[in-house]
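Title: [Solved] Thioredoxin 3D structure

Original question kept below for reference.
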Amino acid sequence: MKLIFVGDPMCSWCYGFGGQMASIVESMPGLDVQVVVGGMAAGSTTVLDDEGKQFRLKHWARVEQLSGAEFNREALMARKNFVYDTEPVCRAVVAARIIAPACDLLNVFRAFQRAFYVDGLDTTDGKALAQIGAMALADQGFDGTAAAFFDAWSSEGAIEAAQDDFAMTRRLGVRGFPTLFVEVDGRIGQLSSGYVTAEQVTSALRSVAA
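Solution (posted by the thread starter after getting help):
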């Protein structure tokens, strides 16, 4: 049995769901988890204006109220000419998967989330992503420099692999993030869509396993 997590590091609901996802993994040791990046706003060229910032702040308030997740509102409001393109950070998650296939990709995913939502870093910038990604992998004991991560992130292989994830997201019929699927004997079924509790997910997984 495999749990498939489809999300985007710059999706606020995915960020809020991070604590629940961690609880799921902790309560079910040995659970096989596949991370698929969804490309929520991949390729966007729209500059985030004041109206767009206020729209996101409303979502952040709802996520914070439900999940208790920490948000750096000041960093968002201070951004100038910021294009909310999620392809670069999704590709960074994929680059980590290419560099260290045995890594805990969920923790790397969360490192990019924290960088954007708490540290206020620019997760559309390749150099910043390389620093974040290299540090996240180093925390798990993998060797590598920010320069090596940047090379992997910049590669055609990473670009194509990210597009493959986006295509898988479409094939699965994902309509929002996060979405969870369970795969058993090669068959994939949707488990949940949107914010859910760890208890709901683990109960559903145990029912499937039984």
